[in-house]
Specification:
The protein has about 200 residues and is an all-alpha fold. It has one domain. About 75% of the residues lie in helices and about 0% in strands. Helix 5 (about 85-120) runs antiparallel to helix 8. The relative contact order is 0.16.
């Protein structure tokens, strides 16, 4: 395997490992939010934000932990035939299934970016040019200039009414990380088929 691909696998897996280890602790944040919700409903005035914030925390926990679970091989597999195969046969089968997963994640990322553009106020036309324009303006001119390019920001229809773009941005970042981790797994499978180690 070329050194570039080996470096890619090492970098992506290091980033995935760090983010996954941090994401593991989001379950405790969610438990704290739900505990506060129970306490506030019992002894104080009920809060509006707790249940929706717990949902957002669970989304972050689930989506940011996904690439790490994929890296560890903790995902569910049909092990009826798989366990008896040689490592090379497993790599062939995994390579094909990873290709299907990469296609699915690509479609999911496309939809997520479109939804992110919508939450930032882009309601018609091509969303990617809009997102690129906002990101380039933010990088070159700062946040005040980027805010001028935004439209009506989408809010949740609940009583708390939080903005939706932060959770949609996190979802897109998590799907992108899953896509990058899937490519790293595909590279590992190709190396196994060729009889090489990464």
């Amino acid at each position: 395997m070329p050194a570039v691909l080996r470096g890619y696998v090492r970098i992506v897996e290091a980033v995935t490992r760090r983010i996954g280890r941090v994401a593991m602790y989001l379950i405790f944040a969610m438990m704290g939010i739900l505990l506060w919700s129970s306490i506030s409903k019992t002894f104080f005035m009920p809060t509006l934000w707790t249940l929706e914030m717990a949902q957002f925390t669970m989304v972050a926990y689930y989506l940011l932990g996904g690439p790490y679970a994929l890296q560890l091989g903790s995902n569910v597999r049909m092990d009826l035939f798989y366990s008896g195969w040689s490592p090379r046969t497993k790599a062939w089968v995994d390579g094909f299934t990873v290709l299907a997963m990469l296609f699915y994640l690509g479609v999911l990322l496309y939809g997520g970016l479109s939804s992110l553009a919508y939450s930032l106020g882009h309601f018609k036309g091509e969303p990617f040019g809009f997102l690129w324009d906002v990101a380039a303006t933010f990088a070159s001119e700062g946040s005040a200039a980027a805010e001028e390019k935004l439209g009506f920001l989408e809010r949740s229809p609940t009583a708390w009414r939080p903005m939706m773009w932060p959770i949609k941005l996190l979802m897109c970042a998590a799907v992108l990380l899953m896509l990058l981790q899937g490519i790293a797994i595909l590279i590992r499978d190709i190396a196994t088929i060729r009889g090489e180690e990464i």
